[in-house]
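Annotated sample (chain length 308).
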Amino acid sequence: MEIDQLETFLVVASLGGFHKAAATLNVSQPAVSARIRALEQSLGVALFSRERPTLTLSEAGRVLRPYAEQLLKTASQARLAVRELQPPSSSPLRIAAGLSISAYFLPDVLKNFQNAYPNITITIRPGHSKEVLDMLLNDEAEIGLARSLNHPEVETLTLRDDPLLLIAHRKHKQFSARLQEVAGWPLIAYERGSSDWTLTQGLFRRAGLMPNIAMEMDTIETAKRMVERGLGLAFLPQLAVVNELRTGKLTMVEIKDAETLHRSLDVVHPRHRPLRKEALAFLRFVREAANVEIVLKRRKQDRRTHRS
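Output written by the structure step:
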């Protein structure tokens, strides 16, 4: 059992296919197949069910998944601990971040970091997850923040879950529905070809349904504004709507007969390029911010449980 085999296993599990995983990992499809086959042989079990058109995890694969995630997280933390011994530098700290992460997560992180380290200059380069990966591999950024990003040449540390939620106007009367009913509602899509687009389209495709796409927007923020004006519903990242859900400006609709569209908020950096102390300090602030949001979420869930 090797690190690259576990990384490949998690990418295939997330994307549901070897071809997509090969494109994400920037390796050939035979290389992906060989890693999965070697991992299955070392464990003596099949990790995927290949009977359906869409590749799914077997029972053994479902059991392995959380352990694989924890093993990769531990390996990444071990490397970071060793790299903290690097001396400080005066050059700007270069960060690449997903578009929505730049808008909804980074501002508070940057404020707290610069209060603690006012002499460190930071440059932020936004982009889609593939662009974030390219910036890291091309030495255009030291740290990347993206969603569900895995590649053999980068370390990936998962910070928290950031699922896609079905979001509606605050006056929407239904708080739960079946997927077939949702498919008939006016839906607002965004960023055609992005991972969010792929996940939402796949949700309906696996159920044999064709969603009613009433509008296509260029950004998450634009789609959210359309929902606020009652023009339709949209599958939006939890990170992008947490304040609106908290204040009641928007509401969430639970889909009773479909899986949650899970995605992780990841911090990534090149595996073979040691991080500077400034970058390691920034990572600590990023982890702290993610942990605070998780704690707040759990407290709210606990309060709801006590009330019921």
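Annotation: Residues 293-308 have pLDDT under 50 and may be disordered.
Annotation: The chain has twelve helices and 13 strands.
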